[in-house]
Amino acid sequence: MNGESSMFVLIALTVITAATPLVFAAIGELVTERSGVLNLGVEGMMLTGAVFSFLCIHVTGNAFLSLLVGIFAGMVMALLFGFLTLTLQASQVATGLALTIFGTGVSALVGQSLIGVAYEGLPKIAIPVLSELPTVGPLLFQHDALVYLSWLLVPAVAIFLKRTRPGLVLRSVGDSHDAAHALGYRVVRVRYIATLFGGGCSGLAGAYLSMAYAPMWVENMSAGRGWIALALVVFAVWQPGWVLFGAYLFGGITILQLHGQGIGINVPSQLMSMLPYLTTIVVLVLISLDQGRVRRNAPAAIGQVFRPTT
Amino acid sequence: MIQLKKRANPSVLMGYLAPVIALGMTLVAGFLLFAVLGVPIGEAFKAYFIEPVSDLYGLAELGVKAAPLIMIAAALSLGFRAGIWNIGAEGQLILGGICGGAVALAFYEVEAFYVLPLMCLAGIAGGMAWAAIPALLRTTVNANEILTSLMLTYVASLLLSFLVHGPLRDPDGFNFPESRLFHDAATLPLVLSGTRLHIGAPIAILVALLAWVLLSRTLLGFALRVNGDAPKAARHTGFGQGQLVWFSLLFTGAMAGLAGLFEVAGPIGQLNPVISPGYGFTAIIVAFLGRLHPVGVVFAGLVMALSYLGGENAQIALNMPLAVTGVFQGMLLFFLLAADVLIHYRIVFGQERRA
Amino acid sequence: MGQALAVLVSNNPYRAFALASQRTTPDSSHNAPTMGHRSDTTQNTAPLVSMQGITKAYPGVIANDSVNLELLPGEIHALLGENGAGKSTLVKILYGLLQPDAGQILWSGNQWDGSPIYLRNPADARSLGIAMVFQHFSLFESLTVVENIALGMAVPASDALRREIRDVSLRYGLPLEPDRDVYSLSVGARQRIEIVRCLLQNPKLLIMDEPTSVLTPQEVQELFVTLKRLAAEGVSILYISHKLDEIRQVCDRATILRGGKNVATAIPEQESARSLAALMMGENVSTTTRTERSETGQPRLALNKLNLPAKSRQAISLQQLNLTVHAGEVVGIAGVAGNGQDELISVLAGEVKASPNDMIWLKGEFVAQWSAAQRRRAGLCTVPEERLGHAAVPSMSLAENALLTGFHRQALRRAGIITKRRCRQAAKAIIDAFSVQCDGPRSAASSLSGGNLQKFVVGREILQAPDVLVISQPTWGVDAGAAADIRNAIQVLAAQGAAVLLISQDLDELMAITDRIGALCAGRLSEFYPTQSVDAQQVGLLMGGKTALEGVA
After folding, report:
1. A274 Cβ neighbours under 8 A, 6+ residues apart
2. Which CATH class is domain C2-129+203-284?
3. What residues of chain B lie within 8 A of the CB of A274, using their CB?
4. Is residue A257 part of a domain?
5. What is the count of residue pairs from B and C with beta carbons less than 8 Å apart?
6. Which among C404, C411, C395, C400 has a CA at the least distance from the CA of C448?
7. C404–B233 C-beta distance less than 8 A
8. DSSP, residue by residue, C157-199
9. Domain boundaries, chain B
10. Which B residues 308-337 touch C at CB under 8 Å?
11. Per-residue pLDDT of chain B (355 residues; tens, 9 = 90+)
12. What are the chain B neighbours of A223 within 8 Å (beta carbons)?
């Protein structure tokens, strides 16, 4: 009984670490999209966040500073995206692709010297008393700081969007930028802020990959997680709570692929590695079957260029 | 404050000038990057732009690299014009390589005229099949083709890895993840002996010309352009969105598949885990740099091919990381998107003076 | 302009007198404001707001050229002018959405006592007590009523706000449910949100931009009751419209703009619709006269209990539509926008297909399952309401836009290859026949004015000699000259034997040129009546949901 329980806890813990970067990237992109901006550059922002935070921990050894650097790197990339799409009104789809290509290149360039560098990973923070509880303790109360942060961030975003005035303004901008503009709201400014938040979250997601999940730097280490995060936002029909659920679902699938052989599934590793990508497609199809639900919840102005008619 | 003032009519001049401005800005940014990395600018310039194309072999290599880019980008530009975002050409290329390569291996040591055409057909079919999945999902359940086609790219490269590690591995290859080398009847004829320039290059030019005629002179091309600019007008006049999605994806899939087959039956000569240095993704940049115009794509393809060659040469000559190529390509696309603004807008710095 | 008008008017002794007694011309508008007929609210009061010498230029056009506008407390003041006269620009400046290039705004409300104000944005305007109901509502579909109102007022969407909404909606007879999602509401209810949102701010000045264009005649009367009540409470109302009868009915004074300049300030009650029109349009008064048509012929297009389920929750489902259009007649469908017009035109054009049982007959054939291309080849041409993006591709040249629907019925290709020369010729033919003002067939559709582009897209279909023409809102937002041209062209087409179905919100237009008329409301069609046998009020009842009129054949 005890052995089984600890095996369960062990697997659950790896699921949590696999899901956490997805939670960050997807919740950030969700906020960006709710303001009407489709940033396809999540993958590029994650890689940039991953490489710069790892570079920082390698140079300074300061984990907190490194996380900030990761967030900042993601935000710089998002700023670039914002400048092109919001100020210069370039196509969001094309710019997002460019951001991913650029981020992949930059991270590979910066990461040249970091290949093979070791880091012990973010320290775990055990919550006093609660972490002593059997099963529940190790499962919920013995994580690194970012896991706790991800659990706090999702409800915080949900409350922000649903219950606060700035959240209402953000949703209104995503619903109809013309109407928001007519009421005197600063559409471009709101979208910049939402895009920067998304970039910061993606950067943090990348930092989690290189500092906690792996922890090391490998070229292209996000391996499509940025794109999966984009799909998660659709899967979640733009609702924060569903992002958490979806991220843990995908975390579970990633772990299934790692532990497949361990639990007796004898399929070549490459085919097991396809699982997250195939699942993404299946999930997209399932969610798209109910077009009414997608259309009702999708921000109406998503991906549209805002041209103030003044 | 930077303000954009809409021009009364789009600037034709800027339409041609924007890619040139973007290239120029990329060069400047590139030299800044070299300065940061401590590489003398003169040497870097030589290594990137002069040395790779200073002899016939180098020029032929330019053609070898440009061919798949042009083929795929010419097809992509049709779809992009229609607002159909197939960004999984890389996966379709890999599937083309797998299917065509599998035919070559199935007909191993069969010296017959039909082997190569059969491989081409298989390559085209493989690319089309891979592209048909996002097309089907988009037209039936309206699943976003950007995400599905991209996910399938990861699946395709894992599939290739699985095959060359397993079923298609060379039985005499000491467990290296490679297939047998294709025999002569399964490799592409060269157009320039002593180089690696194969018939894929002239075919790529033909594809670009075909795409040009299609886009500018046929109802199908017109329908694609209408759908991209005003989807409601396309529906109103009776251009079916579904048909355009199918056409765009299948055509790109076919061209990417053929390009993949050309890679394995040409420069590579076998199946290995990495048959493309990201041609399918770079072709997206080529398509934009070429103004989504098949003829522009030919020039853009040559430019981007040079960035590959320069990158490889600089790695050898200056010990520069290969990743610089990716940085360059990303920057170029950024600058291009920024420069495109000049077509429709004038940029005004500060507040416009009040009258 | 003002000078020319004075000369023109002074040729007529009676009208010269009228001018002297009632109108202030631009030259005299700085004098004391003319007294309104409702002396109880307007006597001896300083203007609430005074816009002086407002000038605003865009590249190639001066939208406002030294325009003056003065509003007294508690008056309903019309801002009258054609499309393109500069009304929208002026009110956007007054609401802080645009900043003038020159001129000043004086304000007497609050602590500002006739001093200049500078409105950087709508929030500035709102803080002074200026509220605006937009013509195209600035509502958020996915948000609730209370959220929408909260956004317009810079307050949280609280229970207190819900209570206030209920109070105001009761007091002014504007029923609203605070927690309904906006997308589920009718057009009239949406306008009520806008009005309630404005009223909650206790405005001193309420700007209403073409408020009646989305209402039935009966709803218009209800609105007028509300407006008069507000004015009686001391609120000034700036009422923008080009509907002369309404202005004469409800407005105390009118400022008339033409070509971006002041033409006159008049008292509408003492003017005729015709004299107001003369002021508004200058020399180009163009009217639409009914052309006589010979007997109508065979049925060309018939709907027989056509159903179309709604595609989304926002869309309208069409239910049991019956309709017959004969050769040689113009049949009109009245109705407020959003009652199924878009769905009807898309099902007639073949953008969406009805099930085979829901028959559409075109010259005796079942066409419900035909594609859009098949219908056009068979002679059913359609012009949707939205010019840019639906009827025409904005970025493409007129030649390419001629190809857009022309290739079905005209030889514009040879062996599958598009002949660009023929496309240009086709475009040239349309430009010439309908005097479309543009730089020739190569100019982009988006570079044309609304009226000229509308003439082009209507002309494109008419020159294809359709057997059936379905046309939706052909004169919406079009200047009077172009509107008259289009209406005449439609009548000529019918006189030549085509069947024309005209879907329009403009009741005057329908009464003027149709032979039979009915209305679309909530996806259902009313009975149809000979236009000569009904009046606007009766059609208004049909627009409001009655399916048949008593006592009319």
Report:
1. B154, B155, B158, B159
2. alpha beta
3. 154-155, 158-159
4. yes
5. 82
6. C395
7. yes
8. --HHHHHHHHHHHHHTT----TTSBGGGS-HHHHHHHHHHHHH
9. 40-319
10. none
11. 567 777 766 777 887 888 889 999 998 998 888 888 888 888 888 888 888 888 999 999 999 999 999 999 999 999 999 999 999 999 999 999 999 999 999 998 888 899 999 999 999 999 999 999 999 999 999 899 999 999 999 999 999 999 999 889 988 878 889 998 998 888 898 988 888 999 999 999 999 999 999 999 999 999 999 999 999 999 999 898 899 999 999 999 999 999 999 999 999 999 999 999 889 999 999 999 898 999 999 999 999 999 889 988 988 888 888 888 888 888 999 999 888 888 877 777 765 444 3
12. 154
Fold of B40-319: ABC transporter involved in vitamin B12 uptake, BtuC (1.10.3470)
Closest CA to C362 of C242, C469, C223, C482: C469
Question: Domain limits of chain C?
Answer: 2-129+203-284, 299-393+465-543
Neighbouring-strand partners of residue A35: none
In chain A, the number of structural domains is 1
Backbone angles phi, psi at C268, to 5 degrees: -60, -35
CA dihedral C153, C154, C156, C161 (to 10 degrees): -20
User: For residue B151, which phi and psi values (nearest 5 degrees)?
Assistant: -60, -40
Q: C543 vs B20, C216, C344, CA distance in Å? A: 58, 6, 16
**Which of C395, C457, C461, C471 to mutate to test binding with chain B, by most B CBs within 10 Å of its CB?**
C395
Chain A nearest-CA distance from C68, in A, is 21
The model's pTM: 0.86
Residue A290 lies in a domain: yes
What are the start-end ranges of the H helices in B166-267?
200-217, 219-229, 231-237, 241-263
Judge contact between B94 and B113, C-beta under 8 A. no
Selecting from A172, A292, A300 the residue whose C-beta is nearest the C-beta of C151 gives A172
Structural domain harbouring A261: 2-121+131-297
Domain C299-393+465-543, CATH 3.40.50.300 — does that match? Answer: yes
Interface residue ranges in chain A relative to chain C, Cβ cutoff 8 Å: 165, 168-169, 171-172, 175-176, 178-180, 182-185, 292, 295-296, 299-300, 310
Of A35, A66, A85, nearest to A217 by C-alpha is A66
The residue type found at B224 is: L
> Is A309 among the domain residues?
no
The reply to whether C2-129+203-284 and C299-393+465-543 are identical in fold is yes
Query: Which string of b and e fits A242-255 if b means at least 16 CB within 10 Å?
Result: bbbebbbbbbbbbb
Residue A84 within any structural domain of the chain: yes
